[in-house]
């Protein structure tokens, strides 16, 4: 038997684990699934004989190294900042490694030694990053092979709620970490290229400057810019393009309402609020509004911001004006308090389905004519456990892990899935699971 250690059994691990267990007999696999919660790890195994759930503390060096030593390959589904200790152990113990996270500088620093030891450290092989890279590179390589010169590149992705489970005004529910949603866009200005000019959008303007996006069969959406769209200019070989933009997809109208929360300061995570556990929603909201001897919270909010009727109804739906409801969270930052409120309002119910939308638009010139190639992917989840998010994050990880074990992916080092020998078989396998793109070409 070949042993795979999976560290982390959270939201995105369900489809990953199921895929590998379904192939465990034919591929002679045994999975050790480690999580701080052994109960969670056990639930993800479904009692399968080729899976062993364990209570696992990645900060316990002795346990971490002992489990890695027994594995042939390690899959880390931990938060990104926790990968490096695992990677260093994989390096010293001679084990391949797969993660879905962005490559950090600390991870990149291991590249030379990983190459020397013949180890594959595959990163950014989830949804975004992951499927976005592979599908984009497939399009770009195809256009170049046809003699096209790339002039513009846009790539947008979002995790949303499926239309059949869409029962709130925001048209949004959590299918991944709520904290990441609340803090989205912070940490620096969004940077991109537009018609040959560098553009920057500071956080306080981010949700005011959106682009419309129409997805055939699914209606109208909007896009706000990701933090650094130029990050992959070199990797995608896009030097010389006039437009380069990567964005996050939301349903139309979401960003205007979210911007009110940003402008109020309710997404701030840099300080804590005194007596936060005692405050009602209304009292908490009032913390961010100026004092007035007679005006109500609603009147002060309307006086401070121009809020359209649709956004106002969205705020009301969150019960932010309630004089009874409390988050009950002590020593909370504004962002933590808001996350607690939203986690209740935007939770996926057992039968709810989520939805992933990914959209590429590539401009190119060929034979003196201007063209655009559009490519869209929409995936609907099965339920609250086997979500579209879990499928699109977990399946590429699982497929890559198996390819590494079987010697299909051989190139060593710290890497992204940008080569045809990696992305072509993975995209083909994903298509059999309904993760497929619909493309169309337009001559302008």
Describe the overall structure.
The protein is of the alpha/beta class and 444 residues long. The protein is built from 17 helices and 16 strands. The protein has helices at 14-22, 24-27, 38-45, 61-70, 83-93, 105-108, 111-116, 131-145, 178-182, 203-206, 254-264, 281-286, 297-304, 309-317, 334-345, 388-405, 420-431; strands spanning 2-7, 29-35, 51-55, 73-76, 96-99, 120-122, 149-161, 190-194, 197-201, 211-215, 219-225, 243-251, 354-366, 369-380, 413-415, 438-443. The strands form 3 sheets. A 7-stranded parallel β-sheet has the order 3-2-1-4-5-6-15, with helices on both faces. A 7-stranded mixed β-sheet has the order 10-11-12-7-13-14-16, covered by helices on one side. Strand 10 (211-215) and strand 11 (219-225) form a beta hairpin. Helix 4 (61-70) crosses helix 5. The protein is globular. The mean pLDDT is 96.
